[in-house]
Amino acid sequence: MANQIKAPINYPIIAGGKIVSGGSVIFGQPNVKPDPDNPSTLKAIYLDAALTQQAENPQGISSDGVFDQSDTGILYGPSDTVYSIVILGANKKQLSYIPEYDLSDANAAATAQAAAAQAESAASNAIAAKDLSEALYTDFTNRYFGAYSSNPSVDDLGNPPSEGSIYFNTVSDVFFTWDGSAWVNYFPSNPNGLMVTATGTAAPRSLADRWADMVNAKDFGVMADGVTDDSLAMNAFITHLKSNGLNGRLPAGTIVAKNLRLESGTLPWSMYGAGKYTTKIISPDGEGTTIIGTAGSSVGYSIGGFTLDCNRTGGGASPNHGISIADTSNVLFERIHVINYANSAILSYEDSAPYSDVTYSDCSCDGGDFAGNGFLIEKCLRPRIINCDAKNILATGGNGPAYGLQFKNDCVGGLISGGSATRCVAGVAFGFELGGVGVKDSIVSDVVVKDCNNGSLIKGLNNRISLTIDMGSSGESAIDVQDGSKYNYFNATVLNVAASKGAIRFRENTEDNSANLNVHGIVLNSSKYVISDTSTLRNSVNVRSYTAADIPTNGYRSLTDFSGTTNSLKIEGITPLHSFLPISSGNVTFDNAAYKVLKIDTEGGNPVTNLNNIFGSPSDGDSILITPVNDARTINVTNAGNIVTLTGADTPLDTQYKIMKLMWRDGPDRWVEH
Prior knowledge:
By secondary structure, the chain is mostly beta strands. The radius of gyration is 43 Å and the shape is flat.
C-alpha cells in the first residue's frame, strides 16, 4: 500500500503553502538532511502506487506547482513512511528543510483539505441556486396576475398587462399569456401548433412542421424489438413517406417485417436506418421478397442504412429477392447489407415501361453459396453500381446464374466503379441474356474479382472494362467476351488462370475488341494468354508487365489458341516473329499475319513429315521464314501443294539452321521460295 505525495507538498513550508516556480524537492532519510551528492542520505520516491517505477530525486517542480516527472502531479511513497525534505528555489537556494515529513499525516490533511474545498464549493452552488430561484420567483410574481374566470384588464394593484404577463383561467383550466395586444392560450390544446424558432434560424415554425422534417417509424407503431411483426406499421410508415414526400428514419434495433411496398409514390421520399449494421430488417418467415416495388413506380426515392436479413431458412415456401423494383427511375439504394436471400440481393428491372438512373452505392451482400445473384440492374439507362461488394454467390439453391455485379440485357451508359466480387460464378457480367446486343457504352473501373469461376463475362458493344482478376488457379477464362460482342476495350491485371484456360477468351462472332493485359502465372499453370474461337475477327491483345516466369521457353505461340482470322497478340518486349505450328495431314495453318517466322513441328512428333501446304489469308508480297522446331525434326517441303521451291524438287529442312524464305504471290496463289 502506498500514500500519495502531491505538489505543492501538503506542509506549511513557506507562506501560503506555495513553492517558488522552477524549484525542486529533495527526499531523504528522516532527520537526515538529504544531499544529492550523498546517496545514503536520500530515500526513494515512486511514479506509481505499486512502487515499481522509481522517480527522480531531486524532483523538479513546474511553474504551476506540479512535480515535473508525474503527468498527474502525484508521487508515491510507502505507507506510514517518514521522509526528510529540502525545498530549493529556482536559484537552487534552500527555502525550507523539513526533518520529518509523515506521509500518513500529510495524506490525512490533504483529504480533509479536499473535503473542505468540496463543502465550500457545494455551499457556493447552493447560494447561487437560491439567488436564481429568488430571481425567477420575482420575475414570475411580477408577470403572474393570478386566477380569474375571464381575461383581466388589470392586476390586483391596478397595473395593466405587459407582454409576457400570464394568468390562470379557472373556467377553461389553462394559462393565458399577454402577447402585447391580447390574451392567448399559453399552452394550446394542440401543442403541435405552437410556433418555435430553431436555434440559429430566423423564421418560426409550428412544432408539427418541425417534427415532420424527419418522421420516425416509431411514430407509426414500429417496435423494432426483434419479436413484434412490424409489417403493417412499416407499410403505414412508408405510405406516409411516399405520399407526402418526406424523409423517414428507422430506429436502431431489429424490425421484423416483410412485403414492404415501395411503389405508387407521388413525391420523392427517403428512408434511412441508424446504420448499415445498427438497424436490421428481418423477414418473419423468409416468404417472398422482403422489400418490393412493382410496376408503376414512377417516382424516385432513396433508402438505406440497414441490414436486410431475408431469413431464407425461416420456413417460407418461396424465398426470393432482398429488394426488387420495376420501372422506377431516380432511385438510390445505399449502405445496405443483404444476407440469407435466394435470388438477387437487389434487383431493378423493366416490366412495362423504360426507366433510368438507378444507383446502388456502398452496398454489400453475402449469398451464403445458396443465392442466385448479387447486385443486378436490367435494361436501364445510366445504371450505377458504386463500391458494392458481393461474395459467395454460387447458386447452390438452383436460382442462378450467380453473378456478383451485373448489368443485364440492354443497359446503356452504365458504370460499375470500385467494389469487389469474391467466390461467384462470374464476378462482373454484362448483358448476359439470350438475344439482343447486350450492354452498350458502359464502364467498369477499379473492380477487384477474386476466386470466381469466370472473372468477367461481357456481352455488348463499345464498353470499357478495367479490373483486377485473381482466378486462384481454377475455373474458366478470366475474361470471357461473349458471342457478337464488338468494339470493347479491356485493361486488366489477370492472375493465376487455370490450366488450358485463357486470360481472355473471344467467343464466336466477336470482332474488333482490344485488350491490354498484365498477366501473371500463365506459364506456371500451363494456361493461355488468349483463346480465340472460330469466326472471330480483328481482336487484338497486348500483354505487358509480365515477369520472367511468364515468358514461355518454347515461344509464346504455345500460350495462345487462335482459331479465328486476323486476330493478333503482342507481348511488349518480345517481337512477334515466330509461331509454333504442328503439321496436320501435310498442312499447317498460318493464322496470324504478325508472325514472320514459322517454327514447324512434325505431325505427331514423327522424325520426318512432308509439308505440302501453308494455309491462311496472306496478301500479295507477304514474306515468311520457315524452319523446323528443333534438330530432331525434319520438315520435307514438297512441291505437291501451294509451295514452289527453287529447285522444283522436295527440299528437306533437317536442322534449325536451315531456313526457307517464302513469298506469297496472288494469281498463282502460291508460296514461292526466293
